[in-house]
Task: inverse folding
């Protein structure tokens, strides 16, 4: 059901050579880019009419408009299962606690007497958020995108989610209910690359956004790449990943359950166990069989995900080697199920989010830990972070110098300007002092 990679016996290679030995899903955004380009440009030129045509072509629904009426959003909340509502409200509450503490404050540094630099943090003006709606419905992604944007102070928030044939062309009602709970009333029944294009270019119904965030399929990722430079993006999210670093103290029942929990997302989902215990590896492999058989989405998602080249049990000689492996892999979600798990977790450099010990499974982070589940995939955790309040803020430096403070440093500025063969830079200062370099 799941393959093995045995890295025992020899010294582990370094850098890219080690990464090349590890499992990874094939996710060719560059190839998809050529297919989404005409879609994006069609939306640019024809606006809402193009969006309506793509809803018919890709989603099988006939729309007269793409903007969701506010009454439909309110009705979705009124009809929501009370237990689901309570769970969403708790998810929102916990996410607000965490994300509110991420808000940065303005800070002024006095560089010299009379010379200060202030860094202020300004939210982007408008964001377009994407909530997937293909194989599954993700109201949790609404929470994870909206809460940090709101806590950052974004004034204008719009959300897009694919139209659903079984709900008369509206996004899934649980998506709409989550929007209602969060006070988001600008919602569009638009999916895929065309949703990103709508936010990037704007249409007659939707103002353009400064930034687009949210997970999606390969077409959404390709559209984000297409618009990079025109709009801000969070990340080109690929298939979900879980890696578990475990030793002989880990419970194979827990480990198997956690691997399956991510495999049920998508046939390209990655489930990776890294362990120095062959006994644990055997026990987990044995445990997978009955747990998979007892769950849902077996044939179309879980079995192909676990059997795919992106999933494996990786055997190492020691936890030190295991740490090198998980750092090279840079998992979206990394669980540490070892003795002294907190100490090992503290040494991890590359992961989207780290889950410590047996009582912090990835599923907790997906919904109610308070952390954000929009995280870097495909090894991007070595250079990128998950979605946070910071994602929606821009740092702006405000430089304020007096005459005397400028005079004190003018000779250095002139010297450096001339060293770079940019004499007009220095002249901009000398002009303020009668074209002479002041002596202080």
Result:
């Amino acid at each position: 059901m799941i393959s093995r990679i045995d890295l025992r016996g020899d010294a582990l290679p370094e850098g890219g050579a080690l990464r090349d030995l590890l499992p990874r899903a094939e996710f060719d955004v560059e190839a998809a880019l050529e297919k989404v380009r005409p879609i994006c440009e069609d939306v640019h030129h024809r606006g809402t009419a193009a969006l309506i045509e793509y809803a018919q072509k890709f989603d099988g629904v006939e729309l007269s408009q793409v903007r969701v009426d506010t009454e439909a959003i309110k009705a979705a909340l009124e009809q929501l299962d009370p237990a689901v509502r309570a769970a969403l409200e708790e998810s929102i509450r916990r996410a607000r606690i965490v994300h509110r503490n991420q808000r940065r404050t303005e800070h002024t540094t006095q560089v010299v007497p009379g010379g200060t630099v202030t860094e202020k943090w300004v939210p982007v003006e408008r964001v377009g958020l994407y909530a997937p709606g293909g194989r599954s419905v993700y109201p949790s992604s609404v929470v994870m995108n909206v809460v940090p944007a709101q806590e950052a102070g974004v004034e204008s928030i719009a959300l897009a989610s694919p139209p659903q044939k079984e709900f008369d062309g509206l996004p899934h009602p649980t998506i709409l209910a989550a929007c209602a709970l969060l006070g988001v009333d600008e919602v569009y029944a638009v999916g895929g690359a065309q949703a990103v294009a709508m936010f990037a270019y704007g249409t007659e119904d939707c103002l353009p956004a400064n930034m687009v965030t949210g997970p999606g399929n390969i077409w959404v990722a390709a559209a984000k790449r297409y618009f990079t430079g025109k709009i801000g993006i969070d990340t080109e999210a690929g298939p979900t990943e879980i890696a578990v670093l475990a030793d002989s103290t880990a419970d194979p029942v827990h480990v198997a359950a956690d691997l399956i929990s991510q495999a049920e997302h998508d046939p390209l989902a990655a489930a990776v166990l890294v362990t120095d215990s062959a006994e644990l590896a055997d026990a987990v492999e044995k445990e997978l069989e009955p747990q998979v058989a007892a769950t849902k989405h077996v044939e179309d998602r879980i079995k192909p995900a676990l059997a795919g080249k992106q999933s494996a049990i990786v055997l190492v000689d020691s936890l030190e080697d295991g740490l090198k492996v998980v750092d090279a892999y840079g998992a979206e979600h990394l669980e540490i199920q070892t003795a002294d798990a907190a100490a090992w977790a503290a040494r991890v450099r590359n992961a989207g989010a780290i889950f410590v010990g047996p009582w912090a499974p990835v599923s907790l982070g997906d919904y109610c830990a308070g952390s954000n589940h929009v995280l870097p995939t495909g090894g991007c955790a070595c250079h990128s972070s998950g979605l946070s309040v910071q994602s929606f803020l821009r740092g702006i430096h405000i430089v304020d110098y007096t005459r005397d403070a400028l005079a004190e440093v003018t000779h250095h500025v002139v010297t450096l300007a001339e060293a770079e063969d940019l004499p007009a830079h220095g002249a901009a200062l000398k002009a303020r002092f009668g074209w002479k370099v002041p002596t202080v």
